[in-house]
Amino acid sequence: MIIEPRTRGFICLTAHPVGCAQNVENQIEYVTSKGKIDGAKKVLVIGSSTGFGLASRITSAFGSDAATIGVFFDKPASPNRPASPGFYNTAAFETAAHKAGLYAKSINGDAFSNEIKEQVVNLIKQDLGQVDLIIYSLASPVRTHPVSGKRFKSVLKPIGENFTNKTVDFHTGKVSEISINPAEGADIENTVTVMGGEDWKMWMDALQEANVLAEGVKTVAYSYIGPEVTKPVYRNGTIGAAKDDLEAKAFTITEALKTIKGNAYVSVNKALVTQASSAIPVIPLYISLLYKIMKEEGVHEGCIEQIQRLYSERLYAGDLSLDEKGRIRVDDWEMREDIQERVVKLWASATTENLSEIGDLEGYSTDFYNLFGFKVPGVDYTKDVNEMVSVPSIQD
Ligand code: NAD
Questions:
Q1: Residue 331 CA, closest ligand 1 atom number
Q2: pTM over 0.85
Q3: β-bridge pairing 163-169 and 174-180
Q4: Which of 124, 138, 176, 336 has the least CB density, counted as fewest CB within 10 Å?
């Protein structure tokens, strides 16, 4: 079929298998060009199909020749209905990994559930024995709790008071004001239940109890801090409360891993266009201004550059450069004082009329389409493609 983008707000209902495969190829090429990293050899990535998780899986496999198991939650294709991008990405990743002689298997299902944890434990036992790195990179708006069976929804709201600021519709470039009401009822607890650290701890407990963690194991979860302008809705908002909880769990997990000399870390990453971040109000405007400045300064990075640097210059470099709260920081370039000062100035003057000049709206929009395999250089979108691509290790 010929597949075209069909967008609805911040989501795209279609994805292009060839474009997704090309994105994966490009990331593999980048990691390969940077040379080998003396990293983990048996790696589990939870949330492995898009964004930072996919970049982590690619960096482990092609940077350190690691065997990888990936867990994700994506929709396979059906006739005339393309799969979700994570499914195509995983198919392309596995195909490339197998071609390179690397072990790669994937599990498509709800990582919050006991069943998927059990499946992963069994797969590790059967194929790898133990793992020495676990990347936790889930981003989800909902979680069904495995104990109570209750379904929780996360919300993106400020805490305490109403938040009013600028935002942009990145499809039209229209800058407008948006007002978000503060969290009410159980909004904060619910968001912490979905995006906090409880599930990360449950994963690590399940893996440790099953004795599938190697001595000296490392686990890393991803967090975000961001600038002053997004603080009320991000770091000081409901999602920030969840990130506080996630960051605190790193210490609880490290404590539990003491007997096997393991460590849990949080890495604070840069703001990037992913399916998760495009859903957060105000962030697209911030990212388009930030991209413009970081590109001008020559310090712009995508997910793959971020994770390659995380592994090669922090995690496996012997110097984690932890901040005062014990976190790894690869958002250091984003948070540079001169860069943030310029964002603040541009933010104040941003309007519909000048945004395409003072911000990188085009870069934002291209990145958004790229997430779904569209607007990828070198791909012929007029060509008929087979939408029924399958992931080699997943047989229906
Ligand atoms: P993403 O949407 O690109 O990826 C999320 C992954 O989680 C996908 O592989 C998806 O399949 C998987 N997933 C979601 N629900 C699942 C479930 N129930 N079971 C199994 N898999 C599931 O998101 P991302 O932006 O790469 O975010 C990953 C992490 O990085 C998040 O913790 C996010 O807060 C953090 N982070 C993101 C940014 C950013 O700007 N995007 C910046 C810093 C940190």
A1: 43
A2: yes
A3: antiparallel
A4: 176
